[in-house]
Automatic annotation (TrEMBL), chain A:
<protein>
    <recommendedName>
        <fullName>NAD(P)H-quinone oxidoreductase subunit 4L</fullName>
        <ecNumber>7.1.1.-</ecNumber>
    </recommendedName>
</protein>
<keyword id="KW-0560">Oxidoreductase</keyword>
<keyword id="KW-0521">NADP</keyword>
<keyword id="KW-0472">Membrane</keyword>
<feature type="transmembrane region" description="Helical">
    <location>
        <begin position="38"/>
        <end position="57"/>
    </location>
</feature>
<keyword id="KW-1133">Transmembrane helix</keyword>
<keyword id="KW-0520">NAD</keyword>
<keyword id="KW-0812">Transmembrane</keyword>
<keyword id="KW-0813">Transport</keyword>
TrEMBL record, chain B:
<feature type="transmembrane region" description="Helical">
    <location>
        <begin position="6"/>
        <end position="29"/>
    </location>
</feature>
<dbReference type="GO" id="GO:0050136">
    <property type="term" value="F:NADH dehydrogenase (quinone) (non-electrogenic) activity"/>
</dbReference>
<dbReference type="InterPro" id="IPR042106">
    <property type="entry name" value="Nuo/plastoQ_OxRdtase_6_NuoJ"/>
</dbReference>
<feature type="transmembrane region" description="Helical">
    <location>
        <begin position="93"/>
        <end position="116"/>
    </location>
</feature>
<dbReference type="Pfam" id="PF00499">
    <property type="entry name" value="Oxidored_q3"/>
</dbReference>
<feature type="transmembrane region" description="Helical">
    <location>
        <begin position="144"/>
        <end position="166"/>
    </location>
</feature>
<feature type="transmembrane region" description="Helical">
    <location>
        <begin position="59"/>
        <end position="81"/>
    </location>
</feature>
<keyword id="KW-1133">Transmembrane helix</keyword>
<keyword id="KW-1003">Cell membrane</keyword>
């Protein structure tokens, strides 16, 4: 195995980890019965996107690290999303007295 | 970065294995509390991956915001909605899980194929390394100033929205029936604050 001194880890390795994290997040988002776990899956997907942004920023845009700035904005939006999402979840729990996703079926087709 | 390349590779392998196994645990473990703590572990190892990518500032922000705020918020939500309930069985649940698993595996294969067949413009410019924090500061106050200010407005909106959504003493009427509806269904015996102030308002206790 030839090791490049400048970047010992290939870019594709980071992309693969991010892809795996994203797919696990999508699966959890679809299949979770607990509403809190759905929010956790969304956080996993956001982290996967952030890993992609950071990897591209380091490997392809090393001088103007715009990907890192984007990752900071994504972290900000994720924090806001988590706060509002958990407030909605709390309100839902007070109204329906359950966190089972299968019973939130008012808008079901 | 001044770490030897073999050390970096070992660190990457350990961190990525922790990330993937931890995320699988987050979605698969039956106990939601274990999932929340594993999610904290996933966030920490992602911060380690950021350190490998010469981004110490974003790694610190990741630990502060995700582990310190989001994960704690999720743990509090688990404590607030902690009701042991037996989930009703759904017909075809296993089929649904397998089907969505197949779709996700297909998506994973697609992403891997894109990642490995695209010819990236490597090697790119040399990473700035330790100067990354300075560059981020310059970006945030010059060409990304408007998104930066908008982010502050967004955080304020999210804070106010979360307070309004989660407050307990909101007293409103049901849209369909017109009778007073209470958000605090769990604490029925506790009189809401707004009712105490005005005696003319209908009380919730008289509602069946």
């Amino acid at each position: 195995m030839s090791i490049d001194v400048a970047s010992p880890i290939p870019l594709e390795a980071f992309l693969s980890v991010a892809a795996m994290l994203f797919c696990v997040g999508v699966w959890g988002l679809i299949n979770s019965r607990n509403a809190v776990r759905v929010l956790m899956s969304i956080e996993l997907m956001l982290n996967a996107v952030n890993i992609n942004l950071m990897a591209f920023s380091n490997y392809l845009d090393g001088q103007l690290i715009r990907g890192q700035v984007f990752a900071i904005f994504v972290i900000t939006v994720a924090a806001a999303e988590a706060a509002v999402g958990l407030a909605i979840l709390l309100s839902l729990y007070r109204n329906r007295e359950t966190v089972d996703m299968e019973r939130f079926n008012l808008l079901r087709w | 970065m001044s770490i030897a390349s073999t050390t970096q590779q070992i660190c990457f392998l350990v961190l990525s294995a922790t990330t993937v196994v931890g995320s699988l645990g987050v979605v698969l473990l039956p106990s939601i509390v274990y999932s929340a703590f594993l999610l904290g572990g996933v966030f920490l190892s992602v911060a380690g991956l950021y350190l490998l990518l010469n981004a110490s500032f974003v790694a610190a922000a990741q630990i502060l915001v995700y582990v310190g705020a989001v994960n704690v918020l999720i743990l509090f939500a688990i404590m607030l909605v902690n009701k042991q309930e037996t989930l009703a069985a759904i017909p075809g649940l296993l089929v649904r899980r397998l089907l969505s698993g197949a779709v996700c595996a297909g998506l994973f294969a697609l992403l891997l194929r894109v990642a490995f067949t695209t010819t990236w413009a490597l090697p790119g410019p040399t990473p700035v390394g330790e100067e990354a924090t300075i560059r981020i500061g310059e970006h945030l106050f010059t060409d990304y100033l408007l998104p930066f200010e908008l982010a502050s407005v967004l955080l304020l909106m999210a804070m106010i929205g979360a307070i309004v959504l989660a407050r307990r003493d909101v007293f409103s009427t049901d849209v369909i029936t017109g009778e007073p509806a209470d958000q605090g269904l769990i604490e029925k015996d506790r009189t809401p604050l707004l009712i105490e102030k005005s005696a003319a308002a209908p009380t919730l206790l008289s509602k069946p």
